[in-house]
Each structure stands twice: as C-alpha cells, then as structure tokens.
TrEMBL record:
It holds the Pfam family RUBY_RBDX. Residues 2-33 form the Rubredoxin-like domain. GO terms for molecular function: iron ion binding. It comes from Proteinivorax tanatarense. CDD domains: rubredoxin_like. Its cofactor is Fe(3+). This is Rubredoxin-like domain-containing protein. InterPro entries: Rubredoxin-like_dom, RUBY_RBDX.
Length: 109
C-alpha cells in the first residue's frame, strides 16, 4: 500500500503510480506503508464502511418514524415511532462520532 504524501491518496494495490491520480504529484512523493499500518487501514476502512451503512439505515428508520408520527393513529403508535426516531438519531450521531474518531487517529487511510 502506497500513500501520496501530498494529498493522502492511497494506492491499495500494486506499486506506487507514476503520477498521483488525485493531485498529480510524481511517483517519488508516494511512501510505502509498513504492512502493520496498511493492515490497520484495511480493517478500519471495513469498519468505517459498516458504520456508513448503519448511518444510512438509521436515516431510513428516521424517515419511517416520521411517517408514523405524522400518521398519529393512536398514542401507542405515536410513542413507538417517537422512540424509534430518538433511538435512530442517537445511533446515527454515535456512528458519526466514531468515524470522526477513526479519522483523527489516522485510521481512515
Ligand atoms: Zn496526491
């Protein structure tokens, strides 16, 4: 795994490219990452993609909950959909914070 030291673009497969596809920096601006570091990035990326999917799912739950709240069939339904909306928002914000923590620790890549 090679990383562009100018823009942080990661070349996950093969050798360093002749030119950075993102910023155009020459090949010598790429550094080879130690296997341990590369493995950590690969694992963290997987976890970050799962968190992204979780966030998307929570947005779907939020949309469903809002429809249920608007429908307002009876107090029981309103309570359930309100709790679903609050739980989805909590999980969405928690997942976003976790991704931000990963980025801050250099785990995004
Ligand atoms: Zn670059």
């Amino acid at each position: 795994m090679y990383k562009c030291t100018v823009c942080n673009y990661l070349n996950a497969e093969g050798e360093a490219p002749q030119k950075c596809p993102k910023c155009g920096a020459p090949q010598e601006k790429f550094e080879k990452l130690a296997k341990e570091h590369a493995d950590k990035i690969t694992r963290s990326r997987h976890s970050n993609y799962l968190l992204k999917d979780l966030i998307t799912s929570m947005e779907t739950i939020n949309d469903i909950a809002e429809q249920g709240i608007d429908d307002d069939l009876d107090p029981g339904c309103r309570k359930l959909f309100t709790e679903a909306k609050e739980s989805a928002e909590f999980l969405r914000q928690t997942a976003l914070a976790e991704i931000e923590n990963h980025i801050g620790k250099g785990k995004w890549g």
